[in-house]
Fold each of these.
Amino acid sequence: LLLSSDSPLSLELSAKNNMASPSATLSLCSAFSAHCSVAPPRSLSKPSLSLARPAIGFLSTSAASTSRPAFPAAPKFAESAVVAEPETTDIEAVVVSEDKPKREEIFAVVMVGGRQYIVFPGRYLYTQRLKDANVDDQIVLNKVLLVGTKTHTYIGKPVVTNATVHAVVENQGLNDKVVVFKYKPKKKYRRNIGHRQPNTRIRITGITGYEEYPASPNVAV
Amino acid sequence: MTRIKRGYIARRRRTKLRLFASSFQGAHSRLMRERTMTQQRIRALVSARRDKKKRKRDFRRLWITRINAVIHETEVFYSYNRFIHNLYKKQLLLNRKILAQIALLNRSCLYTISNEIKK
């Protein structure tokens, strides 16, 4: 049972969460930023990826777990915190989100493939093709530039030390075809070339390891 | 040589052209025999190629404008250029795309960042 909100407009989840308007809009922004792959590579150091193949895989949470306290006090057990949504009689909140566990309100900015992405646990992301990764591999992303929780922001200079983002490789595919049409007028030169860039879809399972880093409390807006 | 009729070769090519130009305005989506559709298709593809490069510039301008707008609100006499200078001095690696997204949606986080780098 894979549990995630695939569609970028997953606002139905926000109907139930009271503190969700930043996270709902943040989820919009992550979808936007994931698809808007135009950041020129300005990284000073090369991104490094390590493949971790543990014996116990991080399985995505199943909907049928028992209820637990909502916002995790110990973020280490982030992936397994599950909250059963209370049954309400709201008409707007009809949508499926009754059994969906409350996601922790955390995001990270991670650099993969020379590009930076805003990343939420449970959502997926298209990155440049990771050459040595096979499907269903656990992946650890080390270049975490920023971790943000509800109360604190951990700003990396340049990297948040020991922070890692765990992800699972879902699919190694190709982007949509773009037509590269080269043409010189009056010189009888035209070339019609199609191009599909290889990509990898990874699903983020958790963000860990940022707790010991000096945090800055969020400024009240 | 046996006689070969060309069958549907030409029709397939023209159908593809018609589909491509189907959203163009006026005669540019209708006139196949006067070659208008072919020419408009070429112009469209050339524009697409050129604008793929321009898109990177356009978005960077947009992000800079957005960051500038939010940074001006933090305090008097503070602007995008000083913010980026401080960013580089503190060796942060966040790029303008991420900063602009944070500015849009999680504005308190951007204020936190700008206070942190001003220290």
Amino acid sequence: MQKDTTTSSSTPPTNTGRIRHRKRSNEVIPEDGKANGGKLLVNDKSKYKSMLIRAYSSVWMIGSFVLIIYMGHLYITAMIVVIQIFMARELFNLLRRAHEDKQLPGFRLLNWHFFFTAMLFVYGRILSQRLVNTVNSDKVLYRLVSSLIKYHMVVCYSLYITGFIWFILTLKKKMYKYQFGQYAWTHMILIVVFGQSSFTVPSIFEGIFWFLLPATLIVINDIAAYFFGFFFGRTPLIKLSPKKTWEGFIGASVTTIISAFMLANIMGRSQWLTCPRKDLSTGWLDCDPGLLFTPESYSLLGWTPLWFPWKEISILPVQWHALCLGLFASIIAPFGGFFASGFKRAFKIKDFGDSIPGHGGLTDRMDCQMVMAVFAYIYHQSFVVPQSLSVEMILDQILMNLSFDEQEALYRRLGEMLQQGIQRMT
Amino acid sequence: MRDSSADNSCSSPRTPNLRQRRRSNEIPPEILKSNGTILLVNDKFKYKSMWIRAYSSLWMLAFVSLIIYMGHLYIWAMIVVIQIFMASELFNLLRRANQDKRLPKFKLLNWHFFFTAMLYVYGRILSQHLVNTVTSEKIFYRLVSNLIKYQMVICYFLYIAGFVWFILSLKKRYYKYQFGQYAWTHMILIVVFTQSAFTVANIFQGIFWFLFPALLIAMNDVAAYFFGFFFGKTPLIKLSPKKTWEGFIGASVATMIAAFTFANFLGRFQWLTCPRKDLSTGWLECDPDPIFKPEYIPMPEFISHWIPEKEIAVLPVQWHALWLGLFASIIAPFGGFFASGFKRAFKIKDFGDSIPGHGGFTDRMDCQMVMAVFVYIYHQSFVVQHDYSIDVLLDQIMRDLGFEEQLALYTKLGQILQERQLMHI
């Protein structure tokens, strides 16, 4: 999170003690009270101005985000790729040292080579099945795509080895330590950036709901923590981020869980958001909502007083899953922000970049999102998919996705595996 | 590779870098200037270190042969032990003693991440094998299949626990050191577990795919040493001054010839070529894969004059072996260069000192790691016949459906396929 108040909390120790709670708009802080009245007014004005800038860019971000969601899965993936490129650039630039870099001409190019390789690897794996489904109609393209997929790992590995050898051949005598540090840093960046996106993109293709709901919960948690801290903040939460308070944390948690429950209901009713996308097309989507998104009615007769107008409420089963997501978003996901704060403090940087006015860089915005995206995907794969999977669904998939020969091959292999299993049991 | 001889050219400031391998009786100009006693001691010392090195090599060779005889499960156990030692060496490498005293639990955190990585990697690779082993008992089967089903969640929560622990343990003036250690831990675990994941996957495809590449790398090492010893003249790369072009090229040729012949020899043993589908340790029997079945090609003209046989039996795997040999001789040494550069960058002599005469485990495994990854990818792409979609669906079926449901699916699919066949006829 970016510090937008002029009295920043990470002041050098010579100043009076750290400000540990969020400022109320009309609270007079002892240090500022000693200054003259002109300073106070400027302080206030600049704080409101920065809050306005922050709100303005938030509105823009939310607006473009909603537009992209409306346009579809492929465009959301493209947006994620663009965000990744910007994040990687910010992070690559972060620990480079200008004078050493002048003596190593091809080094920046090497970073982007590894970036390209990682992108090919991650998106190749994720989108291969969907790509196959898109070109299923055209025989020639199908064979081309299948062979590309078959040799996908070899291609990516060769590219990586090329980069590895290039790195070793460019090691220069007095720069060994710097170059190895940069190499390790590049790997860490790519793992962080691509790790989280390789979980985000499959979520998108499972249904935009599984991407939109976690992202929205993080944003709600952020905003709610800000406001709760603003009005009630008193006890500090963690030394790493002095602006965070326990009141903000708890208030935001409650808000997030409640809104998770309600948002899941709202979002779950839209087919655009809940249907999985099996290929890379961009048109309209139609599908059977599935058990999770079919409303179940619960009667409220025993719970509410007689004057309550609604006698029963309809709950989508997915709302219970949303509660778990909300719990994670409020309790664990903020640790992504703490990690980023600690990192910035360790390396004495204020922000990861300055692409977004009022917020800092892209990495500052995405730090909690990354932790949440990984969790959402793992949760989905472990608890949602098995519940909704059934013999009929897999049978459908087999009949739809495989050719006749492949179906017979699968039948044979399944038979072998089952026989081995039976043999062991008897 | 460890520099065990006394004439360590990289670190002596007085004499210029000795760029060629010493022949046993060549006298470098610097030593000639000194008196005769130093010469004798020098020679003795070098022979003594070569003796130590050969002695520990023999022990390692004998030990590995025994393990291979005992089987897949024991090889896996050996790999796990090697990993633990490598991780230990590397974790200790960049720790700074004074800062570690103020951060008591930090070592424990490293091992927590190590354990999580181990659970994740081996869980993924060996889950199907584990299921095949415990299908005998109903209770175990359900326990194991639940573990496998939720394996990702368990590993993720272990990782998140470590992550949260790390953040809560950040201490005010040690931020930079702690973040550096955190990144270093991740890099170590990635390096160590990536290669071991691929190695273990190779083993269960058939010990051949583990033994053969390891032999090639060892062969390449030894051949490079001897070719360099006898013919070494022009230096190869600034990073490792002891390596020479003559050693490199001689070793490449030797490795490729050895690859072709070893593959023939090793490919005849069922113990080495059969894949292991479960975690048992008994004898193994299988129908050999087509690449291990000999094909007879007629002997070329110029040889048939000398040898009575009209045909030569070539296993198709030998052609694959040529590619593996090419990689082992040309690309795999870069793993060694990387390790050399790393040691030079951080001014360390060896990664550890577990093995007398060789350094630490990481010193031995640096080229092996690059090779193991290549062998796995080569095997998956060019040797195994893959049907991507079938694998994905079979994976899903095995993982998410219970046994009764799998049987139901099988019967239904059988009915549909039969109906379709009847319709077509």
